[in-house]
# Entry
Amino acid sequence: MAIKEAVRPGGRSARVQEAVHQAVRELQTIKARDELTVPQIAERAGVTPSTIYRRWGNLSELVADVSVERMRPDEDPADTGTLAGDLLAWGQQYLEEMTSVPGQRALNDVMASAHDERRERCCRYSESLMTTLHDRALSRGETPPPICKLVDGVVAPMTYRLLYDRDSATVDNLQRWIDCTLKDGDPGVACRQ
Amino acid sequence: MAIKEAVRPGGRSARVQEAVHQAVRELQTIKARDELTVPQIAERAGVTPSTIYRRWGNLSELVADVSVERMRPDEDPADTGTLAGDLLAWGQQYLEEMTSVPGQRALNDVMASAHDERRERCCRYSESLMTTLHDRALSRGETPPPICKLVDGVVAPMTYRLLYDRDSATVDNLQRWIDCTLKDGDPGVACRQ
DNA sequence: CCATTAACGCAAAATTTTAGCATTAACGGA
DNA sequence: TCCGTTAATGCTAAAATTTTGCGTTAATGG
# Structure
């Protein structure tokens, strides 16, 4: 049961993948998570169930695959003129997205995936975003803390709250995380690894 | 399909739960996660599959239930004489536990649960632990940062790395998170909510 | 001790998942 | 462009699972 990933991407294979993803997205809007089934998705996508089982293994991996796609940032973060503003603007939008019902479901689906490479993609999305904001701050002449500080100080607390204690994933707290992270004059030692 | 939780805990019900949990724990040591099945567990536990389906709903919720139990801290954290030492001692052990193969699986199983009340229990474990260390520091005459700072500064980054980027969940980084969190002279504003 | 009812066992039915083989179509070289 | 190779899919039957209905057991409260 070795699940292949994006081999022979041309033509049919890509069409099937898109049809299946689309079917999942559509069904997700009209059905609860625990009443989605593979045969159902297959029928709507116009493929046979065995195709889905062979490519994705099971329902969890399929919905995780769709959801991680959904979590990819589609546009560049807004430029507000300061790092603090950029962090707040991005974080606000991210919080809003991830506390919404579909956002929570997507987060859940990704976390339920047995392949941790999928979760790592979410991590990379955030890190790449922090890198962008960091570079932008540098080019403005600001003196931003190192990227890992941004991750540890802003992204990690926010993610932790979103996953474990949603009620405290608020903009108020976001503002506080940003303030604390940027206030600290000492840039500290950069993270290893 | 409303899953009941610990109603009528006396006698038989408790025996069945323990037998099923035990069966899961045993099977987990000799089988990979994706080759566990409900009928298999039921047989070893000496119950019928329908009992498991009725009580836990599905395999994911069952293993999540078992794993969250496993993650409950069983003993009080070591007292090393300083808050920094206590945090390091606890964090070291936690990191070791959670980067191990069974620890990673347990973490995965809990995160895969659709009931976020299960994840919240993990959060409460950590917060309760931070409270313990905080009180202990106070009684020593230390001036510890507020509990939410400990959570945001130490627990959150560690958890974030464990979930999204295991390679950076190291003792070196733990030491750094602790240093940064305790160094900051300004206790800041306490978290709301 | 009894009435009530939650929890369980059992077995049939429904559904999902797997597996074997045939077919289609993407890919690469001549 | 054509052709051989083979990854990917379709189809179908078999296997395994999950669900459901109903009878039974045993925990709970009086």
Observations:
- Residues 8, 10-13, 37-39, 49-50, 53, 58 of chain A lie near DNA strand C (CB under 10 Å from a C1').
- Residues 1-5, 186-190 of chain A have pLDDT under 50 and may be disordered.
- Chain A touches chain B through 43 residues (CB under 8 Å).
- Residues 116-140 of chain A form the longest helix (25 residues).
